[in-house]
Design goal:
Blueprint (H helix, E strand, L loop, with lengths): L26 H42 L7 H31 L13 H4 L4 H18 L5 H34 L27 H9 L2 E6 L15 E7 L9 H7 L4 H10 L6 H16 L3 H19 L4 H10 L3 H47 L16 H11 L3 H9 L2 H10 L2 H14 L4 E2 L12 E2 L1
Antiparallel strand pairs: 1-2, 3-4
């Protein structure tokens, strides 16, 4: 295979002897300064590219919102309310982007570098808060000068002009990113020095029979929802596998607090106590626990625990600020909070309030969405039952006009079951299924499951530990 050596044309070879300095200046210090300058340039170039990419994403989202916003509403009052709603949404998105950029530029930055150099392209970012404020002032001015002016036409024109401005800004950002990436790739560094001349591809052959251990490991990562039957032992005895029927399994990818001290820290609501606790457990100042505590805030708000949710938000942001303020970030942050640095306290608490309010709004939206989905699901189930219900109180299995043999087999088995079991299978309600199984003996329950699984009405996932025992199977 021919080897591509062209990559090494960009390799810059230097020697300490290449650096010349005045005899009165220590050469080793000069070399370190030179290296520090190179590291600073590379770091600021990476941060600039990341900032521009974040701005590109923000601009795309804002442009989409403005394009899709309809100004054809006849009721001007409702139109203004809708417009103020998207203004608030865009302002929140802009603030979140600025917050991410500030954390990125200050995270793990050498304090000896000083503040970043001003950049013309970055500073020319569209400030949506100011643009929205300008639109509002124009609206007030037009209403005062001409109360009869056509608000709908004026607003559409203003929004289209802002979209055009965003489009021009996107073009500038694209060119600047290309320019910075070209400059970034001119020289080979430890960051971009990967296999270029000696590439090879290895294709793994698919395994025919995966080991049971792998399957078990995969299943162990899932959260099981267990519905116990009448055969479940009392609380004083240890439950057996054969005494439960697992109706469904749910993957839980959402983060909860996995570390005891981090969990304890999330309940603290005092700066001095937080400072003391972090001094005893400095390991919790980590991105992992910051995210877990913030996720806990979301779950707490979902569970109607607002006080704990707000506490989690505050403690998560404490970790974030301590991390972003550099090597001495912990003492610097708490010094400002505890000693009464009013401006710093005000900024931090404003961040806490904004983050918590965002979670509150998000939870409200999710709950409304869930309620709507549940209502729609209930409506579909009722419609399905109504279609399947027969005059004698039994039900039929719904099939297509040209059913397959498998569907015919399901319908035949379904017709042999009692109406209560038929209804439970049509709705797939775990409570109804559990109630039916609770009235049966263990053998009757196993026979029902076997009969339904063989016909395809339900699906059984075999347990790896004991594939022969139907009581240990999972009802999916």
């Amino acid at each position: 295979m021919p080897v591509d050596y062209s990559k090494w044309d960009k390799l810059e070879i230097s020697d300490d002897e290449d650096i010349e300095c005045h005899p009165n200046i220590d050469k080793a210090s000069m070399i370190r300064w030179h290296q520090a300058a190179l590291h600073r340039q590379r770091r600021e170039r990476r941060d600039k590219i990341s900032t521009l990419e974040l701005e590109t994403t923000l601009n795309d989202s804002v442009a989409k919102i403005l394009k899709e916003f309809s100004t054809d509403q006849e009721n001007v009052v409702e139109l203004i309310k809708s417009f103020m709603g998207i203004c608030s949404q865009i302002d929140d998105m802009d603030r979140e982007m600025i917050k991410k950029v500030a954390i990125m530029w200050n995270s793990d930055r050498d304090p000896r570098w000083g503040p970043p150099e001003p950049d013309e392209v970055l500073n020319s970012k569209i400030r949506y808060g100011e643009s929205i404020k300008s639109l509002t002032e124009k609206l007030k001015k037009h209403k005062e000068e001409n109360p009869e002016f056509n608000f709908n036409t004026w607003l559409r024109k203003e929004l289209d002009e802002l979209v055009e401005r965003i489009s021009k800004r996107q073009t500038i950002i694209k060119k600047e990113i290309e320019k910075e990436r070209e400059e970034q790739n001119k020289k080979i560094t430890s960051e971009n020095m990967y296999s270029g001349g000696f590439d090879k591809t290895i294709i793994n052959k698919p395994k025919q029979n995966p080991k049971p251990e792998e399957k078990k490991t995969e299943k162990s990562q899932k959260k099981e929802k267990v519905i116990e039957t009448i055969h479940t032992p009392s609380a004083t005895s240890r439950p057996k596998k054969s005494d439960k029927v697992i109706i469904e399994q749910e993957d839980d990818d959402e983060s909860y607090i996995t570390y005891g001290p981090a969990k304890e820290f999330s309940h603290i609501n005092d700066f001095e106590k937080s400072y003391k606790f972090i001094g005893e457990h400095p390991e919790i100042v980590d991105q992992k626990y910051q995210d877990e505590i913030l996720s806990e805030a979301f779950h707490a708000q979902m569970d109607a625990k607002p006080a704990y949710a707000r506490s989690c938000v505050q403690q998560s942001l404490i970790i974030q600020y301590c991390k972003s303020l550099g090597n001495d970030g912990i003492s610097l942050f708490f010094k400002r909070m505890i000693t009464g640095f009013e401006k710093a306290q005000q900024m931090f608490m404003e961040d806490v309030n904004n983050t918590y309010n965002h979670i509150v709004n998000r939870v409200k939206i999710l709950k409304e969405k869930r309620e709507a989905e549940e209502a729609e699901e209930k409506r579909q189930i009722e419609a399905r039952l109504k279609i399947a219900e027969q005059p004698d109180g039994t039900y039929i299995w719904p099939m297509d006009e040209n059913p397959s043999e498998e569907e015919k087999k399901k319908a035949e088995t379904f017709a042999t079951l009692t109406p209560d079991i038929q209804k439970a299978l049509l709705t797939m309600d775990p409570d109804d299924i559990n109630a039916i199984l609770a009235k049966m003996t263990k053998e009757e329950g196993q026979e029902l499951i076997r009969k339904c699984s063989e016909s395809g009405l339900i699906q059984i996932v075999e347990d790896d530990e004991d594939e022969g025992d139907l009581a240990d199977n999972e009802l999916d």
